[in-house]
Amino acid sequence: MAPRLQGKVAIVTGGASGFGKGIATKFVEEGAQVLIADLSDEAGRGVASELGCAFTVGDVTKRVDWERLLKEATEKFGKLDIVINNAGVTYSNKATEEVTEEEFDRVMNVNVKSVYLSTNVIVPYFMENKISGNFIQIASTAGIRPRPRLTWYNASKGAVITATKAMALEYGPQQIRFNSVSPVIGSTGMTHLFIGKPNTPENRKAFESTVPLGRGSTPSDIANACCYLASDEAAFITGVNLEVDGGRCV
Ligand SMILES: NC(=O)c1ccc[n+]([C@@H]2O[C@H](COP(=O)([O-])OP(=O)(O)OC[C@H]3O[C@@H](n4cnc5c(N)ncnc54)[C@H](O)[C@@H]3O)[C@@H](O)[C@H]2O)c1
């Protein structure tokens, strides 16, 4: 079978760790040229050398970094087709009245403003070059089936899902597709914050017990969904929030 992303160029944000690393790995395996952007220089370099893909330090909350990412991808690979907005953060599980303004701003900036900036910078590039571009946001089941004590994280992912659907409508005529993928609890760099305790199998049990298939999302679960949505097999799919959650949101 031909690689499913042959000839495509993708930016994967937050690709130095967790789900983003899984997505970058799958995309490289399927023939895509990948540029990882992450705040973490050391981890990002490590993943890029392991996968044989490109890496740049970048902060998804900064417009200049998005402008540079577009420039680097197009200069290095000749074009850009796919943006995976995966980088995300949360604050530690806590009573909502205790969330600080700084925590609120950080969650909204990294999870939501990043999607605004990426589309603000890259949609004009897709339109000017008549590229049928493709945005995939890593949202969360938290955006549609929230858990208590994570209110503003839940709300940030709800915003991502709604904005993605709105842009799917708006840019359909230009053949630019917008979808989101929603994992349920996984075992990554931020899991200890969701559960408010160290990330051990024992401590994950309470969250995982609410998943009908009885486990959390893995990086390959999320990567496989992103690969499908980014490929031409999904050419008629836009505005979808694909829950990769073992049935949690049913
Ligand atoms: N882990 C879970 O249980 C879970 C569940 C549902 C959704 N998600 C979502 O999955 C996505 C990936 O998270 P993960 O679980 O792999 O966590 P992670 O902490 O392992 O990875 C997140 C990566 O994003 C990077 N990052 C953070 N802020 C950044 C910024 N401003 N600019 C660039 N890079 C930045 C980090 O350096 C890190 O490499 C997030 O959007 C998260 O909200 C995670």
Characterize this entry briefly.
This protein is α/β, with parallel strands linked by helices. It has helices at residues 18-29, 41-51, 63-77, 101-128, 151-171, 191-195, 201-208, 219-230; strands spanning 9-13, 33-38, 54-57, 82-85, 134-138, 177-183, 241-244.
Task: Give an account of the 3D structure.
The chain contains 8 helices and 7 strands; from the N terminus they run E-H-E-H-E-H-E-H-E-H-E-H-H-H-E. It has a 7-stranded parallel sheet with strand order 3-2-1-4-5-6-7, sandwiched between helices. By secondary structure, the chain is of the alpha/beta class. The protein has a single domain (9-188, 218-244), classed as NAD(P)-binding Rossmann-like Domain (Rossmann fold), CATH 3.40.50. Bound molecules: nicotinamide-adenine-dinucleotide.
